[in-house]
Design goal:
Blueprint lengths: L3 H8 L9 H5 L7 H15 L4 E2 L11 E2 H11 L2 H9 L14 H22 L10 H16 L2 H14 L9 H5 L2 H6 L1 H5 L6 H12 L2 H4 L2 H4 L1 H23 L3 H20 L7 H24 L7 H14 L2 H15 L12 H23 L2 H19 L1
Antiparallel strand pairs: 1-2
């Protein structure tokens, strides 16, 4: 999309509407030439004696815009590529744009902008959501209205007309699709900032699921959370690396401290993002953490140091059991039981002497049953096998 992505990046996030050049300057979307210059001169004079300017009547910025913000907005206005992006994300109202759109298309566009702007302000503002309804309602309304609008062929025709009307050579290499392609990601961009708040993630996941129902948003939605997820994964990997290095060096107490103070909090942060992560990746991270918890706990047990750390070891292994993927569950639960019972030799692929004896006894019983069945007959073999199994059970107890 050539130059236009730069503007999408500038607007992205919770300040999407607060940075809009029409919101800041108060210009209408059909403003051109002399009208723009006269308006700028009036604002320059006004801001020479006043600290702020209110901006458009629907500007969501409390307290208005400062001189530097207004100056920058007028500079952005001079680039038709940037102006068109801001036009798409601001109110068209009853401006005579000569685009030939159905009046209902303009009304639906403004309704979509209004719902989206109110959803953002409901998330960030100190006041209740404007216009009634909670933030989730406004998010849902914005999703449905923008999805319908982006599928409306009138919107592409509208943009094609605006590109012709602006008659700027800098637009010659562009098509309406070059601009429309970036709109879904821009509308979703506030979610990336909201995801930084762990407490908001469960509710945000529900809101995002509503947007994902629409094909136009389902594709770009995972990319919105990519940076947040990757940062969380990087923190978790660093914590695991620290715990692993201490474990390998035989620094058992330090390794356990790294699990409790770094790995578990980092994994809790990652867990809060799992609804934005593929199932396979979520399972692989759970497996990696499970193995780390298990190995450090068993290392302490095998070193005979479990007594002063017993409570912590049990908590670590209980966490491992809770998060373990199905492939790890049986082994982890076995090791958890061993740690709870304070067995210092507990660990994967290790058995106590009694367990070895039991295995040998089982094998001898099976062999004896087979031999008896061949030489004497089933009448002797069956009691021998079942009697042996009973004795095995007594030994295991």
């Amino acid at each position: 999309m050539k130059e236009s992505p730069a503007r999408f990046a500038d607007l992205a996030g919770l300040r999407l509407y607060r940075r809009n050049i029409f919101a800041v300057t108060g210009l209408s979307v059909d403003a051109r030439g002399p009208a723009v210059r006269r308006h700028r001169q009036r604002l320059d004079a006004r801001l020479a004696v006043e600290e702020t300017w209110r901006g458009d009547a629907d500007s969501p910025v409390p307290g208005g815009h400062r001189k530097e913000e207004v100056r920058l907005a007028f500079e952005e206005f001079q680039d038709p590529r940037r102006r068109l992006v801001d036009e798409l994300l601001w109110y068209w109202r009853d401006a005579d744009l000569g685009c030939g759109c159905s009046p209902s298309t303009h009304e639906r566009h403004d309704d979509a902008v209004r719902a989206h702007s109110r959803a953002i302000e409901a998330e960030t503002g100190a006041l209740p959501p404007p216009g009634g309804g909670d933030a989730a309602w406004h998010w849902g309304a914005a999703a449905s209205r923008w999805a319908a609008l982006l599928e409306n062929t009138d919107l592409r025709g509208h943009l094609a007309h605006r590109m012709t009307a602006l008659a700027d050579p800098r637009l010659d290499d562009y098509s309406p699709d070059d601009f429309l392609a970036g709109v879904p990601g821009l509308l979703l961009s506030p979610f990336a900032e909201l995801a930084d708040d762990r407490a908001a993630r469960p509710r945000l996941a529900e809101v995002s699921a509503g947007w994902a129902q629409y094909p136009v948003f389902a594709g770009p939605l995972p990319d919105v959370f990519e940076d947040t997820v990757e940062e969380s994964v990087d923190r978790l990997k660093d914590a695991l690396r620290t715990a692993g290095e201490r474990h390998e060096a035989g620094q058992h107490a330090d390794a356990l401290a790294a699990l409790e103070q770094r790995v578990l909090p980092a994994y809790a942060d990652f867990e809060s993002l799992t609804r934005f992560v593929s199932e396979s990746r979520s399972e692989e991270m759970a497996h990696t953490v499970t193995v780390a918890l298990n190995n450090v706990a068993l290392g302490i047990c095998e070193a005979g140091l479990q007594k002063p750390f017993q409570r912590s070891l049990i908590e670590v292994m209980e966490t491992a059991s809770r998060i373990a993927p199905q492939r790890d569950q049986a082994q982890i639960d076995q090791n958890l039981t061993a740690v709870r019972h304070g067995r210092p030799g507990a660990g994967p692929n290790r058995m106590k002497p009694r367990e070895c004896l039991t295995c040998l006894f089982v094998l001898a019983t099976i062999i004896g049953g087979i031999v008896g069945g061949v030489t004497v007959g089933p009448a002797l073999a069956v009691p021998l096998v079942f009697g042996g199994i009973f004795v095995v059970g007594m030994v295991a107890q």
